[in-house]
UniProtKB/TrEMBL annotation, chain A:
Name of the protein: Guanine nucleotide-binding protein subunit gamma
Keywords of this entry: Cell membrane, Lipoprotein, Membrane, Methylation, Prenylation, Transducer
Location of this chain's protein in the cell: Cell membrane
SUPFAM superfamilies on file: Transducin (heterotrimeric G protein), gamma chain
GO CC, any one term: heterotrimeric G-protein complex
Family in the record: Belongs to the G protein gamma family.
Taxonomic lineage: Eukaryota, Metazoa, Chordata, Craniata, Vertebrata
Coiled-coil residue windows: none
Recorded name of the encoding gene: GNGT2
PROSITE patterns xrefs: G_PROTEIN_GAMMA
A molecular function (GO) term: G-protein beta-subunit binding
UniProtKB/TrEMBL annotation, chain B:
An MF annotation (GO) of this entry: G-protein gamma-subunit binding
Annotated protein name in UniProt: Guanine nucleotide-binding protein subunit beta-5
Gene: GNB5
Upper taxonomic lineage: Eukaryota, Metazoa, Chordata, Craniata, Vertebrata
Highest taxon of the lineage: Eukaryota
Oligomer status and interactors: Component of a complex composed of RGS9 (isoform RGS9-1), GNB5 and RGS9BP; within this complex, the presence of GNB5 stabilizes both itself and RGS9 and increases RGS9 GTPase-activating protein (GAP) activity. Interacts with RGS7, forming the RGS7-GNB5 complex; within this complex, the presence of GNB5 increases RGS7 GTPase-activating protein (GAP) activity. Interacts with GPR158; promotes the GTPase activator activity of the RGS7-GNB5 complex in absence of glycine, in contrast GTPase activator activity of the RGS7-GNB5 complex is inhibited in presence of glycine. Interacts with RGS6.
Record PROSITE patterns: WD_REPEATS_1, WD_REPEATS_2, WD_REPEATS_REGION
Function according to Swiss-Prot or TrEMBL: Enhances GTPase-activating protein (GAP) activity of regulator of G protein signaling (RGS) proteins, such as RGS7 and RGS9, hence involved in the termination of the signaling initiated by the G protein coupled receptors (GPCRs) by accelerating the GTP hydrolysis on the G-alpha subunits, thereby promoting their inactivation. Increases RGS7 GTPase-activating protein (GAP) activity, thereby regulating mood and cognition. Increases RGS9 GTPase-activating protein (GAP) activity, hence contributes to the deactivation of G protein signaling initiated by D(2) dopamine receptors.
GO biological process terms on file: dark adaptation; G protein-coupled dopamine receptor signaling pathway; light adaption
Keyword Coiled coil: no
Cellular component annotations (GO), alphabetically ordered: cell tip; cytosol; dendrite; nucleus; parallel fiber to Purkinje cell synapse; postsynaptic membrane; presynaptic membrane
Organism this protein belongs to: Mandrillus leucophaeus
Length: 88, 357
Protein backbone atom coordinates (compact mmCIF):
# COMPACT_ATOMS: atom_id res chain seq x y z
CA UNK A 1 0.00 0.00 0.00
CA UNK A 2 1.20 3.48 -0.74
CA UNK A 3 0.75 4.62 2.85
CA UNK A 4 3.15 1.94 4.08
CA UNK A 5 6.03 3.31 2.05
CA UNK A 6 8.59 5.29 4.02
CA UNK A 7 9.35 8.93 3.20
CA UNK A 8 12.67 7.82 1.68
CA UNK A 9 10.95 5.29 -0.62
CA UNK A 10 8.41 7.85 -1.76
CA UNK A 11 11.15 10.34 -2.61
CA UNK A 12 13.14 7.66 -4.44
CA UNK A 13 10.06 6.83 -6.49
CA UNK A 14 9.63 10.51 -7.31
CA UNK A 15 13.24 10.94 -8.40
CA UNK A 16 13.04 7.86 -10.63
CA UNK A 17 9.91 9.29 -12.23
CA UNK A 18 11.50 12.70 -12.78
CA UNK A 19 14.55 11.10 -14.41
CA UNK A 20 12.24 9.40 -16.91
CA UNK A 21 10.29 12.57 -17.56
CA UNK A 22 13.35 14.66 -18.42
CA UNK A 23 13.41 12.93 -21.80
CA UNK A 24 9.82 13.93 -22.71
CA UNK A 25 9.46 16.30 -25.66
CA UNK A 26 7.62 19.50 -24.93
CA UNK A 27 6.04 22.01 -27.30
CA UNK A 28 5.84 25.72 -26.49
CA UNK A 29 2.66 27.23 -25.01
CA UNK A 30 2.23 29.57 -27.98
CA UNK A 31 1.57 26.49 -30.11
CA UNK A 32 -0.30 24.38 -27.53
CA UNK A 33 -2.58 27.21 -26.45
CA UNK A 34 -3.45 28.08 -30.02
CA UNK A 35 -4.33 24.47 -30.79
CA UNK A 36 -6.69 24.23 -27.82
CA UNK A 37 -8.39 27.44 -28.94
CA UNK A 38 -8.70 26.15 -32.52
CA UNK A 39 -10.15 22.85 -31.32
CA UNK A 40 -12.79 24.65 -29.25
CA UNK A 41 -13.74 26.99 -32.07
CA UNK A 42 -14.06 24.11 -34.50
CA UNK A 43 -16.23 22.10 -32.11
CA UNK A 44 -18.29 25.01 -30.79
CA UNK A 45 -20.90 24.52 -33.49
CA UNK A 46 -21.70 21.04 -32.17
CA UNK A 47 -21.91 21.96 -28.52
CA UNK A 48 -25.53 22.03 -27.31
CA UNK A 49 -24.59 24.15 -24.30
CA UNK A 50 -23.10 26.87 -26.50
CA UNK A 51 -25.60 27.08 -29.28
CA UNK A 52 -28.68 26.21 -27.24
CA UNK A 53 -31.40 23.71 -28.09
CA UNK A 54 -34.90 24.79 -29.13
CA UNK A 55 -37.37 23.81 -26.40
CA UNK A 56 -39.21 21.33 -28.59
CA UNK A 57 -36.04 19.37 -29.42
CA UNK A 58 -34.72 19.32 -25.83
CA UNK A 59 -35.41 15.84 -24.40
CA UNK A 60 -35.35 17.30 -20.88
CA UNK A 61 -37.91 20.02 -21.40
CA UNK A 62 -40.99 20.27 -19.16
CA UNK A 63 -43.49 17.74 -20.41
CA UNK A 64 -46.26 19.71 -22.18
CA UNK A 65 -49.47 17.80 -21.42
CA UNK A 66 -48.66 17.25 -17.72
CA UNK A 67 -47.92 20.90 -17.12
CA UNK A 68 -51.14 22.03 -18.75
CA UNK A 69 -53.11 19.39 -16.88
CA UNK A 70 -51.56 20.65 -13.66
CA UNK A 71 -52.69 24.17 -14.42
CA UNK A 72 -56.20 22.97 -15.18
CA UNK A 73 -56.30 21.00 -11.96
CA UNK A 74 -55.18 23.98 -9.92
CA UNK A 75 -57.76 26.17 -11.61
CA UNK A 76 -60.50 23.63 -10.89
CA UNK A 77 -59.38 23.39 -7.26
CA UNK A 78 -59.66 27.16 -6.91
CA UNK A 79 -63.21 27.33 -8.31
CA UNK A 80 -64.33 24.40 -6.16
CA UNK A 81 -62.98 26.13 -3.08
CA UNK A 82 -64.87 29.25 -4.01
CA UNK A 83 -68.10 27.32 -4.63
CA UNK A 84 -67.89 25.49 -1.31
CA UNK A 85 -67.17 28.65 0.63
CA UNK A 86 -70.31 30.27 -0.81
CA UNK A 87 -72.73 27.54 0.21
CA UNK A 88 -74.63 28.35 3.40
CA UNK B 1 29.12 57.70 -28.37
CA UNK B 2 27.10 54.94 -29.96
CA UNK B 3 23.45 55.66 -30.45
CA UNK B 4 22.17 52.10 -30.45
CA UNK B 5 19.11 51.46 -28.37
CA UNK B 6 19.16 48.50 -26.02
CA UNK B 7 16.20 46.41 -24.99
CA UNK B 8 15.92 46.64 -21.24
CA UNK B 9 14.72 43.40 -19.68
CA UNK B 10 12.73 43.82 -16.52
CA UNK B 11 13.07 40.92 -14.10
CA UNK B 12 10.63 40.45 -11.32
CA UNK B 13 7.68 38.40 -10.24
CA UNK B 14 4.91 37.80 -12.76
CA UNK B 15 1.57 39.35 -11.82
CA UNK B 16 -0.23 36.14 -12.69
CA UNK B 17 1.89 33.19 -11.62
CA UNK B 18 4.18 35.05 -9.20
CA UNK B 19 7.31 33.29 -10.51
CA UNK B 20 10.57 35.21 -10.93
CA UNK B 21 11.00 35.69 -14.66
CA UNK B 22 11.78 38.20 -17.41
CA UNK B 23 8.58 40.24 -17.74
CA UNK B 24 6.61 41.70 -20.62
CA UNK B 25 3.94 44.42 -20.42
CA UNK B 26 0.40 43.17 -20.96
CA UNK B 27 -2.78 45.25 -21.11
CA UNK B 28 -5.86 43.89 -19.38
CA UNK B 29 -8.98 46.09 -19.29
CA UNK B 30 -6.74 49.12 -20.00
CA UNK B 31 -4.61 48.36 -16.95
CA UNK B 32 -0.94 47.57 -17.52
CA UNK B 33 0.35 44.39 -15.89
CA UNK B 34 3.64 42.55 -16.16
CA UNK B 35 3.44 38.90 -17.17
CA UNK B 36 6.14 36.31 -17.78
CA UNK B 37 6.33 35.00 -21.34
CA UNK B 38 4.20 31.90 -20.71
CA UNK B 39 1.37 33.78 -19.01
CA UNK B 40 1.59 36.44 -21.74
CA UNK B 41 1.16 33.79 -24.45
CA UNK B 42 -1.87 32.31 -22.72
CA UNK B 43 -3.32 35.80 -22.22
CA UNK B 44 -2.88 36.50 -25.94
CA UNK B 45 -4.76 33.35 -26.91
CA UNK B 46 -7.57 34.18 -24.49
CA UNK B 47 -7.88 37.77 -25.76
CA UNK B 48 -8.58 36.63 -29.28
CA UNK B 49 -11.51 34.43 -28.27
CA UNK B 50 -15.03 35.82 -28.39
CA UNK B 51 -16.79 36.18 -25.07
CA UNK B 52 -19.71 33.88 -24.29
CA UNK B 53 -23.26 35.10 -23.89
CA UNK B 54 -25.45 34.54 -20.84
CA UNK B 55 -26.36 30.99 -19.98
CA UNK B 56 -29.65 29.77 -18.65
CA UNK B 57 -29.27 26.35 -17.15
CA UNK B 58 -31.82 24.93 -14.79
CA UNK B 59 -32.69 21.69 -13.14
CA UNK B 60 -34.88 19.79 -15.55
CA UNK B 61 -35.19 16.54 -13.62
CA UNK B 62 -34.64 15.63 -9.98
CA UNK B 63 -33.99 11.95 -9.35
CA UNK B 64 -35.12 11.03 -5.86
CA UNK B 65 -34.87 7.61 -4.34
CA UNK B 66 -31.52 7.20 -2.69
CA UNK B 67 -31.70 6.88 1.06
CA UNK B 68 -28.37 8.49 1.72
CA UNK B 69 -25.57 10.57 0.14
CA UNK B 70 -25.12 10.05 -3.60
CA UNK B 71 -21.41 9.40 -4.16
CA UNK B 72 -20.96 8.62 -7.83
CA UNK B 73 -22.84 8.52 -11.12
CA UNK B 74 -22.27 7.67 -14.76
CA UNK B 75 -24.22 8.05 -18.02
CA UNK B 76 -24.97 5.22 -20.40
CA UNK B 77 -23.89 5.66 -24.03
CA UNK B 78 -27.59 5.83 -24.99
CA UNK B 79 -27.54 9.38 -23.48
CA UNK B 80 -30.55 8.55 -21.40
CA UNK B 81 -29.80 6.09 -18.63
CA UNK B 82 -27.85 6.94 -15.53
CA UNK B 83 -26.35 4.70 -12.87
CA UNK B 84 -25.76 6.15 -9.42
CA UNK B 85 -24.41 4.80 -6.16
CA UNK B 86 -24.77 5.98 -2.61
CA UNK B 87 -23.55 5.69 0.95
CA UNK B 88 -26.32 3.29 1.95
CA UNK B 89 -25.00 0.63 -0.41
CA UNK B 90 -27.66 1.02 -3.10
CA UNK B 91 -26.84 1.27 -6.80
CA UNK B 92 -29.76 2.47 -8.96
CA UNK B 93 -30.14 2.67 -12.74
CA UNK B 94 -32.49 5.52 -13.77
CA UNK B 95 -34.13 6.60 -17.00
CA UNK B 96 -33.36 10.31 -16.92
CA UNK B 97 -36.15 11.31 -19.33
CA UNK B 98 -38.95 9.80 -17.24
CA UNK B 99 -37.12 9.69 -13.85
CA UNK B 100 -38.15 6.05 -13.46
CA UNK B 101 -35.90 3.61 -11.68
CA UNK B 102 -35.10 0.69 -13.95
CA UNK B 103 -32.86 -1.44 -11.75
CA UNK B 104 -31.69 -1.38 -8.15
CA UNK B 105 -29.00 -3.44 -6.44
CA UNK B 106 -28.00 -3.48 -2.80
CA UNK B 107 -24.27 -3.94 -2.33
CA UNK B 108 -22.99 -5.83 0.70
CA UNK B 109 -20.98 -2.78 1.78
CA UNK B 110 -21.78 0.85 2.47
CA UNK B 111 -20.06 3.86 0.81
CA UNK B 112 -20.22 2.71 -2.78
CA UNK B 113 -17.80 5.35 -4.03
CA UNK B 114 -17.47 4.24 -7.61
CA UNK B 115 -19.87 3.16 -10.30
CA UNK B 116 -19.63 2.94 -14.07
CA UNK B 117 -21.82 1.97 -17.01
CA UNK B 118 -20.45 -0.50 -19.55
CA UNK B 119 -20.10 0.87 -23.12
CA UNK B 120 -22.65 -1.66 -24.37
CA UNK B 121 -25.18 -0.58 -21.74
CA UNK B 122 -25.59 -4.18 -20.63
CA UNK B 123 -23.71 -4.09 -17.34
CA UNK B 124 -22.66 -1.84 -14.50
CA UNK B 125 -19.60 -1.93 -12.26
CA UNK B 126 -19.45 -0.63 -8.72
CA UNK B 127 -17.38 -0.81 -5.57
CA UNK B 128 -16.37 0.98 -2.41
CA UNK B 129 -15.49 -0.05 1.12
CA UNK B 130 -15.53 -3.72 0.16
CA UNK B 131 -12.17 -3.13 -1.63
CA UNK B 132 -13.59 -4.85 -4.72
CA UNK B 133 -15.07 -3.86 -8.03
CA UNK B 134 -18.11 -5.98 -8.92
CA UNK B 135 -19.79 -6.19 -12.31
CA UNK B 136 -23.57 -6.75 -12.51
CA UNK B 137 -25.08 -7.66 -15.89
CA UNK B 138 -28.34 -5.73 -16.37
CA UNK B 139 -31.34 -7.85 -17.06
CA UNK B 140 -34.94 -6.87 -17.78
CA UNK B 141 -36.30 -10.14 -16.48
CA UNK B 142 -38.33 -9.22 -13.39
CA UNK B 143 -37.84 -12.64 -11.85
CA UNK B 144 -34.10 -12.57 -11.95
CA UNK B 145 -32.23 -11.34 -8.92
CA UNK B 146 -29.47 -9.02 -10.12
CA UNK B 147 -27.33 -9.70 -7.08
CA UNK B 148 -27.15 -13.40 -8.00
CA UNK B 149 -25.30 -12.68 -11.22
CA UNK B 150 -22.67 -10.50 -9.59
CA UNK B 151 -19.08 -11.00 -10.65
CA UNK B 152 -16.19 -9.79 -8.46
CA UNK B 153 -13.55 -8.48 -10.77
CA UNK B 154 -11.02 -6.36 -8.91
CA UNK B 155 -9.37 -6.89 -5.53
CA UNK B 156 -7.51 -4.09 -3.82
CA UNK B 157 -6.08 -3.78 -0.32
CA UNK B 158 -8.04 -0.63 0.43
CA UNK B 159 -11.27 1.06 -0.65
CA UNK B 160 -12.18 1.43 -4.32
CA UNK B 161 -12.37 5.12 -5.21
CA UNK B 162 -13.00 5.06 -8.97
CA UNK B 163 -13.66 2.61 -11.75
CA UNK B 164 -14.20 2.83 -15.48
CA UNK B 165 -14.71 0.39 -18.34
CA UNK B 166 -12.19 0.78 -21.15
CA UNK B 167 -13.48 0.89 -24.73
CA UNK B 168 -15.12 -2.52 -24.36
CA UNK B 169 -17.07 -4.39 -21.68
CA UNK B 170 -14.11 -6.72 -21.26
CA UNK B 171 -11.69 -4.59 -19.27
CA UNK B 172 -12.04 -2.39 -16.22
CA UNK B 173 -9.67 0.20 -14.85
CA UNK B 174 -9.81 0.82 -11.09
CA UNK B 175 -8.28 3.28 -8.64
CA UNK B 176 -7.96 2.57 -4.96
CA UNK B 177 -7.14 3.99 -1.55
CA UNK B 178 -4.13 1.69 -1.50
CA UNK B 179 -2.34 4.12 -3.85
CA UNK B 180 -2.49 2.00 -6.98
CA UNK B 181 -4.54 1.79 -10.16
CA UNK B 182 -5.11 -1.49 -11.92
CA UNK B 183 -6.44 -2.88 -15.19
CA UNK B 184 -8.53 -6.07 -14.93
CA UNK B 185 -10.03 -8.56 -17.34
CA UNK B 186 -13.75 -8.80 -16.53
CA UNK B 187 -14.31 -12.38 -17.66
CA UNK B 188 -11.50 -14.03 -15.71
CA UNK B 189 -10.99 -11.42 -12.97
CA UNK B 190 -7.29 -11.44 -13.79
CA UNK B 191 -5.02 -8.47 -13.11
CA UNK B 192 -3.65 -7.33 -16.48
CA UNK B 193 -1.55 -4.36 -15.38
CA UNK B 194 -0.95 -2.42 -12.20
CA UNK B 195 0.13 1.19 -11.88
CA UNK B 196 2.31 2.22 -8.94
CA UNK B 197 3.57 5.72 -8.41
CA UNK B 198 1.17 7.63 -6.25
CA UNK B 199 2.37 8.29 -2.72
CA UNK B 200 -1.10 8.24 -1.20
CA UNK B 201 -4.73 7.27 -1.96
CA UNK B 202 -5.75 7.59 -5.60
CA UNK B 203 -9.13 9.33 -5.71
CA UNK B 204 -10.04 9.55 -9.38
CA UNK B 205 -9.19 8.47 -12.87
CA UNK B 206 -10.23 9.18 -16.45
CA UNK B 207 -9.46 7.39 -19.71
CA UNK B 208 -8.22 9.27 -22.75
CA UNK B 209 -10.90 9.76 -25.43
CA UNK B 210 -10.70 6.81 -27.78
CA UNK B 211 -9.02 8.44 -30.78
CA UNK B 212 -5.88 9.24 -28.84
CA UNK B 213 -5.01 5.86 -27.50
CA UNK B 214 -3.99 3.97 -24.45
CA UNK B 215 -3.44 6.43 -21.66
CA UNK B 216 -5.34 7.48 -18.60
CA UNK B 217 -4.88 10.14 -15.95
CA UNK B 218 -5.25 9.63 -12.20
CA UNK B 219 -5.34 12.10 -9.31
CA UNK B 220 -4.60 11.44 -5.67
CA UNK B 221 -4.20 12.62 -2.11
CA UNK B 222 -0.50 13.22 -2.78
CA UNK B 223 -1.61 16.31 -4.82
CA UNK B 224 -0.25 14.70 -7.98
CA UNK B 225 -1.99 14.04 -11.25
CA UNK B 226 -0.25 11.29 -13.20
CA UNK B 227 -0.68 10.23 -16.80
CA UNK B 228 -0.09 6.50 -17.39
CA UNK B 229 0.56 4.31 -20.41
CA UNK B 230 -1.88 1.39 -20.08
CA UNK B 231 0.27 -1.08 -21.95
CA UNK B 232 3.57 -0.63 -20.14
CA UNK B 233 2.26 0.39 -16.72
CA UNK B 234 4.66 3.35 -16.70
CA UNK B 235 3.83 6.86 -15.65
CA UNK B 236 4.43 9.10 -18.62
CA UNK B 237 3.93 12.52 -17.04
CA UNK B 238 3.25 13.82 -13.55
CA UNK B 239 1.93 17.21 -12.46
CA UNK B 240 2.16 18.53 -8.94
CA UNK B 241 0.83 22.08 -8.71
CA UNK B 242 -2.29 21.57 -6.62
CA UNK B 243 -2.08 22.42 -2.95
CA UNK B 244 -4.35 19.67 -1.71
CA UNK B 245 -6.00 16.35 -2.64
CA UNK B 246 -7.14 16.05 -6.24
CA UNK B 247 -10.75 14.87 -6.16
CA UNK B 248 -11.49 14.64 -9.84
CA UNK B 249 -9.67 14.55 -13.17
CA UNK B 250 -11.21 14.70 -16.64
CA UNK B 251 -9.62 14.61 -20.08
CA UNK B 252 -10.23 17.47 -22.48
CA UNK B 253 -12.35 16.31 -25.47
CA UNK B 254 -9.36 16.54 -27.82
CA UNK B 255 -7.23 14.35 -25.55
CA UNK B 256 -4.36 16.88 -25.43
CA UNK B 257 -5.14 18.28 -22.01
CA UNK B 258 -6.96 17.46 -18.80
CA UNK B 259 -8.62 19.35 -15.97
CA UNK B 260 -8.51 18.58 -12.28
CA UNK B 261 -10.60 19.68 -9.30
CA UNK B 262 -9.11 19.76 -5.84
CA UNK B 263 -9.74 20.43 -2.16
CA UNK B 264 -7.65 23.61 -2.52
CA UNK B 265 -10.80 25.19 -4.09
CA UNK B 266 -9.25 25.48 -7.55
CA UNK B 267 -9.67 23.65 -10.83
CA UNK B 268 -6.65 23.56 -13.11
CA UNK B 269 -6.08 22.80 -16.77
CA UNK B 270 -2.89 20.94 -17.74
CA UNK B 271 -1.67 20.70 -21.32
CA UNK B 272 -0.07 17.32 -22.01
CA UNK B 273 2.06 18.34 -24.97
CA UNK B 274 3.40 21.48 -23.34
CA UNK B 275 3.79 19.43 -20.14
CA UNK B 276 2.57 22.13 -17.78
CA UNK B 277 -0.37 23.74 -16.06
CA UNK B 278 -1.92 26.34 -18.35
CA UNK B 279 -4.87 27.72 -16.40
CA UNK B 280 -6.24 27.99 -12.88
CA UNK B 281 -9.96 28.43 -12.34
CA UNK B 282 -10.44 30.00 -8.95
CA UNK B 283 -11.94 32.97 -7.19
CA UNK B 284 -11.25 34.43 -3.77
CA UNK B 285 -14.90 33.89 -2.89
CA UNK B 286 -14.64 30.16 -3.53
CA UNK B 287 -13.13 28.51 -0.50
CA UNK B 288 -14.65 25.04 -0.61
CA UNK B 289 -13.06 22.19 -2.53
CA UNK B 290 -14.14 21.11 -5.98
CA UNK B 291 -15.32 17.53 -5.88
CA UNK B 292 -16.04 16.83 -9.51
CA UNK B 293 -15.30 18.36 -12.94
CA UNK B 294 -16.39 17.72 -16.51
CA UNK B 295 -16.14 19.49 -19.87
CA UNK B 296 -18.90 20.39 -22.28
CA UNK B 297 -18.74 18.73 -25.71
CA UNK B 298 -16.55 21.36 -27.36
CA UNK B 299 -14.36 21.90 -24.33
CA UNK B 300 -15.31 25.56 -24.01
CA UNK B 301 -17.10 25.11 -20.69
CA UNK B 302 -15.88 23.40 -17.53
CA UNK B 303 -18.56 22.38 -15.06
CA UNK B 304 -17.33 21.93 -11.50
CA UNK B 305 -19.29 20.79 -8.45
CA UNK B 306 -18.16 22.14 -5.10
CA UNK B 307 -18.50 21.28 -1.43
CA UNK B 308 -20.37 24.56 -0.83
CA UNK B 309 -23.42 23.04 -2.58
CA UNK B 310 -22.95 25.00 -5.83
CA UNK B 311 -21.88 24.22 -9.37
CA UNK B 312 -19.64 26.76 -11.08
CA UNK B 313 -19.42 26.94 -14.86
CA UNK B 314 -16.03 28.20 -16.11
CA UNK B 315 -15.02 29.52 -19.54
CA UNK B 316 -12.02 27.27 -20.21
CA UNK B 317 -10.30 29.65 -22.63
CA UNK B 318 -10.79 32.92 -20.81
CA UNK B 319 -10.41 31.57 -17.30
CA UNK B 320 -13.47 33.37 -16.00
CA UNK B 321 -16.61 32.08 -14.36
CA UNK B 322 -19.62 32.08 -16.65
CA UNK B 323 -22.35 31.00 -14.29
CA UNK B 324 -23.07 29.65 -10.82
CA UNK B 325 -25.84 27.12 -10.31
CA UNK B 326 -27.74 26.65 -7.07
CA UNK B 327 -30.15 23.91 -6.21
CA UNK B 328 -28.48 21.21 -4.20
CA UNK B 329 -28.94 21.23 -0.46
CA UNK B 330 -25.66 19.59 0.39
CA UNK B 331 -22.25 18.98 -1.20
CA UNK B 332 -22.14 18.16 -4.88
CA UNK B 333 -20.18 14.92 -4.95
CA UNK B 334 -20.29 13.92 -8.60
CA UNK B 335 -20.93 15.56 -11.98
CA UNK B 336 -20.97 14.18 -15.52
CA UNK B 337 -21.95 15.66 -18.88
CA UNK B 338 -24.14 13.40 -21.02
CA UNK B 339 -22.45 11.66 -24.00
CA UNK B 340 -24.16 13.94 -26.54
CA UNK B 341 -23.53 17.09 -24.50
CA UNK B 342 -27.18 18.12 -24.19
CA UNK B 343 -27.30 18.00 -20.40
CA UNK B 344 -25.26 17.24 -17.35
CA UNK B 345 -26.18 15.39 -14.19
CA UNK B 346 -24.98 16.18 -10.68
CA UNK B 347 -25.26 13.97 -7.62
CA UNK B 348 -25.14 15.29 -4.09
CA UNK B 349 -25.01 14.44 -0.42
CA UNK B 350 -28.62 15.72 -0.25
CA UNK B 351 -29.65 12.23 -1.56
CA UNK B 352 -30.74 13.49 -5.00
CA UNK B 353 -29.41 13.74 -8.52
CA UNK B 354 -30.28 16.67 -10.76
CA UNK B 355 -30.22 16.81 -14.54
CA UNK B 356 -29.45 20.32 -15.82
CA UNK B 357 -29.95 21.53 -19.39
Amino acid sequence: MAQDLSEKDLLKMEVEQLKKEVKNTRIPISKAGKEIKEYVEAQAGNDPFLKGIPEDKNPFKEKGPTFNALLLLLGRAFWLELAWSRTP
Amino acid sequence: MCDQTFLANVFGSCDKCFKQRALRPVFKKSQQLSYCSTCAEIHQVAERVEALGQFVMKTRRTLKGHGNKVLCMDWCKDKRRIVSSSQDGKVIVWDSFTTNKEHAVTMPCTWVMACAYAPSGCAIACGGLDNKCSVYPLTFDKNENMAAKKKSVAMHTNYLSACSFTNSDMQILTASGDGTCALWDVESGQLLQSFHGHGADVLCLDLAPSETGNTFVSGGCDKKAMVWDMRSGQCVQAFETHESDINSVRYYPSGDAFASGSDDATCRLYDLRADREVAIYSKESIIFGASSVDFSLSGRLLFAGYNDYTINVWDVLKGSRVSILFGHENRVSTLRVSPDGTAFCSGSWDHTLRVWA
